[in-house]
Amino acid sequence: xxxxxxxxxxVLFAALAGVFLMNIGKDSSVVPSALIDKPAPDFQLPPLxxxxxxxxxxxxxxxxxxxxxxxxxxxxxxRAEHPLIKRMAREANVPVYGLNYKEKDPQDGVNWLGELxxxxxxxxxxxxxxxxxxxxxxxxxxxxxIDGTGQIRYKHVGPVTNEVLEEVLLPKIAELKG
Amino acid sequence: xxxxxxxxxxxxxxILIGLHAGPAYAVNPDEMLSDPVLEERARDISQELxxxxxxxxxxxxxxxxxxxxxxxxxxxxxxASDTNDEVIDYIVERYGDYxxxxxxxxxxxxxxxxxxxxxxxxxxxxxxxxxxxKQREDGAGPKSLSDQEEKRLTEILGSSQDRS
Lengths: 178, 164
Known about the structure:
heterodimer; A: 5 helices; 39% helix; B: mainly alpha; elongated
């Protein structure tokens, strides 16, 4: 009996150390999305200046898997991930839509895509950031995978890297396409 | 040189000013509602909501862009005559329980809420057990000598008396 009481603190310490150990290397700034497996919010966004097609909920619930990438010209990591978004659009064989988040000047998004290339099937301009809030966006870039019924199935926060694209996003898209 | 009463007065003035200065908030004047009751409610709600960019600040405290957008959103919902709970639910629907600085009591958070109580109980039991045992040991005292020991003692004492 006495032996077991003496062992309790050691066991508690080991359990706590285990919990801490499991969390090493986990990015604490990543917040789990509240919208996973929920229908994407309703939205209707105007096109970039000089284009005629914006983006709305109808685009992402047309019966096929799609990707929604939230980007902004002022966002440095977006620039870093952009080649990979282009690669995703080529390799995943699903439409990749762009949500141009909170530009100071509507023209900025157009210029940015002109400079870096435009992989998006359509781009919606969210100047107020309100659609971003509806999607639970808290930092650009963010990338959503949406199934054919318009449900959000996966969300990646932060820039897409080679590793993320190859090991997470592409397999997830393939899985949803079935 | 200042006279003593004068400097005392100055010191008081400084303290009084200090007492009146509240904590600095990030709310900009242009965000505030003209209705003081609604504004007060907006402030209460904002202090409950975490800024997801800076994480350990409420949106009321934070200068982040998103915090500002959420403060404005909170005020819009209030103007649309939402109750405080409805406003908070609206934000939680989008950002999850994580935006609440005060985590709700539900199965996933039981361990968070209950573990302090369990630890306190455990500590209380340990303290009680410790004192109980101590009391028992104190109360028992030394046992009286057995007949054999008594005899031996008189022998020893007797023999030492003989020698002296």
